[in-house]
Amino acid sequence: MKKCIFVWLLILLSAGFSLRPTIAEEQKLGLREAILISFADNHELKARQSSLAATQADIGIARSYLLPSLLFEEKYQRTANPTYSFMSKLNQERFTTQDFAINSLNNPDPINDFQTLFSIEQPLFARKANIGLAMAKKQREVASREFLRKKEEIALDVTRAFLMVQTSRNYVNVAEKGVDDAKEHVRISELRFNNGLGLYSDTLRARTALADAEQQLVSARKNFDVAKKAMGLLLGSDEAIDADMEQIKLPLNEMEYYSRASLQRADLKAVEGQYEIAGKNLALATAGYLPTLGLAGSYMMNDHETALGSEGESWLVAAVLRWQLYDGSRREYERIKAQHQIAETKEYLQGMKKAVSFKVYESYRGVEEKNKNLDLSLAALQTAEEGQRLVELRYENSLSPLVDLLDAQIALDHARAVVVTRQNEHELAKAILSFESGTILQDLQIDNQ
Fold it and tell me: Are the CB atoms for 124 and 295 separated by under 8 Å?
């Protein structure tokens, strides 16, 4: 009996362990994959996408002013007004000779009228509507350019976050090496003390250095976790997302290549489109001086008893010319305003071209600077590693005090951290150069559709 109970307990315990939820592994992404996910899930980009779709609807709205307008109307009225009473009977085709009696004309009985109306209007010449449609199409193009530039911004932000995750991981590795080295120093100092060759104060100093190294490791791990969480947020996720160990290798071309490419930058083309829209706005204000021409037609049924009745039927066809001769100088002020907006947009466009050219130059020189700094930091790391090795040997052989070894270790830890920083800065500088020249999606081999 006891054996059966024991077996059942084992079964239940094993089932209980199997029912425990497993901890999901942290998602790890490559840079290109992370950028494509951000294009699909980033909240700011989704908002811009909805705004872009709205500009397509604006084209349909503008085109509607050039298409036929159909109207159905059902109206009921009851009146004793002589004029309306006379007209209603005529429309209902119930007018008789008795209705010509003076008393009937002056004091008609109340009359009901159900009027059913179908009407159509078709513009033939509406210059403002045509210009409005062209402006809506150009605005759509501008919005597309702005959306593309926003995608480039997101790509740069993801690249920056991706590099930050990699850098934070490397800082953790550096901190772990520092802890390992500090532990080795503690071991050597204790060994020397136990053999009567060292001081107890050296052991205390080594342990203090180990505590400092462990604190730096704690901070490095915290920064690593925060960096992964930040990348997840950028990708529209609440979870932390890790970065692959892949090395980002953006191409580096000649300065002339980036200068030429920057002239086609999406936001620069968007401002050029705004300049064209400003010119069309002047044409729109000028079109206010022109007449509009259109056709109109209607079919009407009248009945004195029922809605949609057809006691009387009639139709009407008309051509309409509408020409506003004076509007209080509103059109003239609209023209003046449009001219100033053209000048404003032109100046802004010229200034932006110069600013883009400067940012490309600055970014290119920045890449050169970061590349040289990286080479220097790698050389400094080699020197620091060799220096620490030699000082450690001297300390083991009682030729150097512990303070020299700790100083050499601090220099080595600093050199390791500087290399990690310089590597991140170098890759980020190339990404910024690609962004400023408008080639970042092409350089990362990402489809911008």
Answer: yes
